[in-house]
Design brief:
Oligomer: single chain
Shape: globular
Largest sheet: 5 strands, mixed
Pfam families: NMT1_2
CATH class of the largest domain: Alpha Beta
Helix content: 40-55%
Number of domains: 2
Organism: Paenibacillus aurantius
Number of strands: 10
Number of helices: 16
Family: Belongs to the bacterial solute-binding protein SsuA/TauA family.
Signal peptide: 1-23
Keywords: Signal
Structural class: alpha/beta
Order of helices and strands: HEHHEHEHEEEHEHEHEHEHHHHHHH
């Protein structure tokens, strides 16, 4: 989604409104999270909730799904939420528009793209050249899934605009339905839809865009710089809880992770949940700590630049603050 098209009034309001700290000089005990979507990909977040890690840190956390990068960032900028869980590219889009109160990435949750290449008629073996001349149903332009997809195609010598028929005019929620109804030879899918389609016999996952595009600060907890300066102690407690959850996910078997997150996916088949968690765990999508390293940040911008979505490069320290994640990694045992 092209977030830099937001009305100027939204950014102006965000610049004028200062989110208040709790009365009496006390840090806020409640933090409101806006997640960009409800996804198994965000398993460590649901673990932090279900295992009581936020409560252990003395926090009351309210989770809401804000349905889309633009809506999530608008909610953050207008103080409807305190912390956003969304792709790091959104903080860059806001920065590119100009802001007196930039959005700062402070704790990473996932470190790879979460989409997979799904083939309607997979052969005995897969080669990326098989996509040439095909109809490819991709993700919406300007979002990280689309950018990671195009980055991967170009990496394998495929020009997305010339070597195949690229379809990008289908809304995110309608992409699975479009493929199921016959659109596309290949489709770029998130889980659990990829596993559901495999179970239904509609085709097969033949490659991972997460593996192909490398480590990225793909989904990150972020907040406004003004919120960090006023609520540093609460942000540290929040990051400590995230670190506990990330360590827990890294150390536990798939079955235990599924049990922990199942309440957040009551309508998802148990076997599908297991397959999805295993797939993401095996490819290292879940971050084991919240630290965003400079190589990841540079790779993110390389992906954006390849897709033509980066106006100018943003220095690593401008929109990344690792103080909280580094302290959490040291203190959480």
């Amino acid at each position: 989604m092209r977030l830099w098209k937001w009305p100027a009034a939204v950014l102006l309001a965000a610049a004028l409104v200062v989110f208040p700290a709790c009365g009496g000089g006390q840090e806020k005990a409640k933090i409101r999270i806006g997640e960009v979507t409800r996804s198994i990909f965000y398993a460590p977040q649901y673990v932090a909730l279900s295992q009581g890690f936020f409560k252990e840190e003395g926090l009351e956390v309210e989770l809401q799904t804000t349905a889309g990068g633009d809506k999530t960032m608008t909610a953050l900028l207008s103080n409807a939420i305190d912390v956003a869980l969304v792709g790091s590219e959104t903080s860059i889009y806001v920065y590119q528009q100009g802001s007196d109160d930039p959005v700062i990435n402070f704790a990473q949750l996932t470190q790879t793209d979460g989409t997979f290449l799904f083939a309607r008629k997979p052969g005995a073996s897969f080669d990326w050249n098989q996509l040439k001349g095909s109809q490819f149903l991709g993700q919406r332009k300007g979002g990280m899934p689309q950018m990671a997809g195009e980055f991967t195609l170009k990496k394998h010598g495929i020009n997305p605009q010339k070597d195949l028929t690229l379809i990008q005019n289908v809304d995110f929620a309608n992409i699975p339905g479009a493929f199921a109804s016959g659109t596309g030879d290949y489709v770029q899918l998130f889980e659990p839809q990829a596993s559901i389609f495999e179970k239904e016999g509609r085709g097969k996952v033949v490659a991972s865009f997460g593996v192909e595009s490398g480590h990225l600060p793909y989904t990150v907890f972020m907040t406004k710089k003004s919120y960090l300066s006023k609520n540093g102690a609460a942000v540290q407690k929040f990051t400590n809880a995230v670190q506990k959850a990330e360590k827990w996910v890294a150390s536990k078997p798939v079955e235990e992770i599924v049990t922990a997150i199942k309440p957040y996916f009551p309508d998802t088949d148990q076997e599908i949940l297991k397959n999805v968690v295993k797939r993401y765990k095996d490819q290292g999508s879940f971050a084991e700590d919240g630290i965003i390293d400079e190589a990841e940040w540079n790779n993110l911008q390389a992906v954006m630049e390849t897709a033509g979505e980066l106006k100018t490069k943003v220095p690593f320290g401008t929109l990344v603050d690792n103080r909280f994640a580094e302290k959490a990694k040291q203190e959480v045992k």
